[in-house]
Amino acid sequence: MGNECAVIWDESLLAYDLGGDHPLHPVRLDLTMRLARSLGVLDGVDPVSPEPATEEDLARIHTRDYLEAVRAAPAAAGDVGHGLGTADNPVFDRMHESASLVAGGSIAAAERILSGGANRAVNLSGGLHHAMADNASGFCVYNDCAVAVAWLLANGVDRIAYLDVDVHHGDGVQAAFYDDPRVMTISLHQHPFTLWPGTGFPNEVGAENAQGSAVNLALPPGTDDAGWLRALWAVVPSVLESFAPQVLVTQCGADPHREDPLADLRMSVDGQRALYGALRDLADRHAGGKWLALGGGGYALHRVVPRAWTHLLATMLDRDVDPARLVPAEWTAHATTLASDVALPTTMTDGGDPRFTPWDGVTELSVDAAIRDTRHAVFPLHGLDPADSRD
C-alpha cells in the first residue's frame, strides 16, 4: 500500500455555505482544489465522494435535541437556540444535510484508513472543531473532527491522537474527549487571553481519569514560523511517543498565517509547508503512518488558504511542491473573476524562512515561556522530565 492517500472531495461539499460575506466562505475550497489540479498535485487521484453522516454517527457526539434543532432551523421563525441563528452561525438552507455531508467526509477518510485502503486520508472541507454536543459555535454546526474520532473508537481503535494547529483552540474536540484516556487532544493556538474562544490554557490537561490526555500550547501573538515550529518540536514528539497512537488525526486550519484577518500569529506559507512536512514525519514516526488530515479555519480566502492547503495535499501525496513554483495562469484567471480587487500570489512561497532553533530551555524568545508552561503542566503526567530537551 505504501503511502497511498485518499482525497475526500465532491463539489457538493461547497454547499456548507454560511452566506453573504461570512468569513468561512466555500470559495477557499474551490480555489484550493483548482490550484492543486492546475499544479498536477492531483494527477491520477480519483477523489472519494462522501455520504452524509448518519444519525447514529452524529449522536456519538451531539445530542438528539440538537440534531433535531439543526434539522428544523431553516424553517423556524425567530430564535432557534442552540447557538443557531447568530452572526457566527447563521441558519442556512439544508443546513443539516450540508453539515452531515462534511461529517460524512471525515468518516469516509477514517474508514479508508481503518479498512487498509490508504495510509493517509484528507477531507479539506472538515475541521469544524468548535461545535459542542448541544450547540453550534465558531462557524461550526457539526463537529466532524470529533465525529470521525468517535467513529474510529466505535470501530475498534484504542488510541487516537488529535493534533490541532488552527490558530483558535480546538475546544469542541477537547470537550468531547476530556474524560476519555483513549484520545489525546493536542492544540497549538494563539493565547486564550488574546483570542476567541478563550480556552486552551496549559493547565487544561484532561479530567481526573484522563490526566495528561489534553495538551495545550498557548502561543503569544506575533509568533512566527521559527517560534511556531520550535514550540511544536519542543512538545509534540515527546507526548506522542508516550501515548503511542494508532492513528494521528490533524486539524490543519490555515489561519496562523500572518495575513489572516481574524488572528495575530505570523506564519508564512513556507512555515505552513514545513509544518505539514512535520505532521507527515510525526505520523510516520509515532502512528505507523496512519494520518487523517482535516481542513479548518483560514480566512485569507484567495491569497493564503489555496496555497497552504495545496501544499498540504502535496505533502500527503508525497508530491511536495517547490515553493518557487509559479502559480498557474489558468488559476489566476479564474481567481481574478472572484476577487478582482485582491493582489493574487504569483508563486507558492511567501519568501519565508522556516528554519528554527530547537528548544533547549527558556531563552529571551517570547515563545519559550509557553513551551515551558506546557511541558511543566503535561510532561510529568507522562513520566517525562520537563527539563529534558531531547526529542
From TrEMBL:
Keywords noted in UniProt: Acetoin catabolism
Pathway note: Ketone degradation; acetoin degradation
Residue span(s) of domain Histone deacetylase: 22-315
A GO MF term: histone deacetylase activity
A single BP term in Gene Ontology: acetoin catabolic process
Xref: InterPro entries: AcuC, HDACs, His_deacetylse_dom, His_deacetylse_dom_sf, Ureohydrolase_dom_sf
Superkingdom, taxonomy of origin: Bacteria
Protein family: Belongs to the histone deacetylase family.
This protein's name: Acetoin utilization protein AcuC
Natural source organism: Actinopolyspora saharensis
